[in-house]
Amino acid sequence: MKSITIRPIVEGKKEGQAIVSQFPISFYGDVDPETGKILDKSNPLYGKSIANKIFVFPESRGSTVGSYVIYGLQVNGVAPLGLIVETAETIVIAGAILADIPLVDKPESNIFSEIKTGDIVQINTIKKEIVIKKRMSID
Amino acid sequence: MFLTKKQEKMLEGEMGEVISKNMKLIVKLGEINEAKKLIPIKSAQIAGVSYFTVGEAIFSFFNLFSKENVKVKVPSWLNPAGMDRKNWEKMGITERFAEKQFQIIQKYEEMGVESTLTCTPYLIGYQPNYGEHLAWSESSAVVMANSFFGARTNREGGPSALAAALTGFTAEYGFHLTEKRQPTIKVNVETNLDTLADFSALGYWYGKNFHGETPFITGLSQLSINEAKMLSSAIAASGSVALFHAKNLSPESEIISLDNIKEKIIFSESEKQSVYDCFTQKDTNFDIVVIGCPHASLTELVIIHSSLKDKVLKKNLKFWVFTSQKVSNSKKFKPIQRCLEKKGIEIFTDTCMVVSPIVRTKYKHILTNSAKASKYLSNSKQTKVTFRSLHHILRNVTE
Fold first, then answer.
1. In which domain, by residue range, is A31 found?
2. pTM of this prediction?
3. For residue A40, what is the domain's CATH number?
4. What is the DSSP string of B332-345?
5. What is the pLDDT of residue A139?
6. How does residue B273 score in pLDDT terms, banded at 50, 70 and 90?
7. What is the Cα–Cα distance from B18 to B69, expressed in whole angstroms?
8. For residue B138, what is the nearest residue in chain A, using CA coordinates?
9. Residue B266 in contact with partner chain A when CB distance is under 8 A
């Protein structure tokens, strides 16, 4: 178990499997609002779904319509459980607030070396931390 | 962050869930950006209208909002849609697209947003006053409001501009604060800017080299509203710039502090030419000319009209001009429109080459006088774009 201090933006306590993108995400265009699948062919996560997972990525990019896509994921029942980003900006903040998805940023250590896809991760905004509960594999 | 009692009540849900969520969005953005308080806004300009860009995602959002029948608190206007409301069939828009597009416009209208469908509210009588706080989202209009009119707005997204419209507030950070409006780069223009496209080239070149930095521009002898419009749209498209100052020409230029200038650069003939070179193709087999990014003003339409008076357009060449409905409805424009249409020039309102799906999907080689349009239209792989001044274009497209 390892805990990392974060800055809470949208409150909540959620635990689930992590899905990690090393690349910035443009929710409009890169994510299918119907299925939660990654549509960006240049992303190694192409074809995988962020539905009901803890989605970890550096930052959001692209059209501000991305906020509507995040809300659409929630309506369609395929939203991520929580969002962990390096730097939160307007697109992901607006989407997470409207869809009520816990969102945290500014992790104290490098989330991309600490968290791998498949790890069990908990977001806890009251304690201002994320906890990596179970590692996928021991490197 | 300090909130008044009224703002707290809005946040806590006394005015319903929708207002509460939108207030939360405004407050969170304020907290992240270290704002000390919220400030009332005078107007909002809302992007996220074209069905081509917002897709189905926006409808789930509208369902949330329409539950409580919320209305905007300040004058609020819409950015262009994906089609002309009257002549969508002539543009080649499908019936399904049109149906969706009308639904989107109607939903905004139900919230009290005026369906101006233009990126240039300042050309249709909605000019902001000096020092007013706004929440505008069209990137070129943001630069115009900040730079040409001396009003204050951040580069809002569609959702944050709508949240500001529904609550009447934005958080006081970024370009709302005098100290964040100071220029960091000094640009001396050492070449003549003779055409609107030259101003577009200046903006494009600067934005590409100095992302997000506010310039102090010297060496300009004039800056008309049309010139400022072209400069604003290009500087925002290539560099996400929100504000420029132009010595003796823009309203804050004489009072703003120059203490933060960290670099001085020169825009000469070769820099100007480099932008035209950037959007030059091996052939000149254009299949469409598109003018009106940002939306054409009456002045530009008069120029096109007078330059083409005794000339005939080349065969098989489309020539489309985009403007706002208010400009096209003006009495002065009607006789010009008849004359242009006789020559085969189509005037479309409510939309543009960037947010409509048609230009980028149906045409292979596009000729335009806008560096912003050139940038966005070149993103699609099957299209080639040539960027030239309107004078150059008009000389080359007639028999």
1. 2-134
2. 0.93
3. 3.50.30.10
4. THHHHHHHHHHTTE
5. 46
6. very high
7. 9
8. A64
9. no
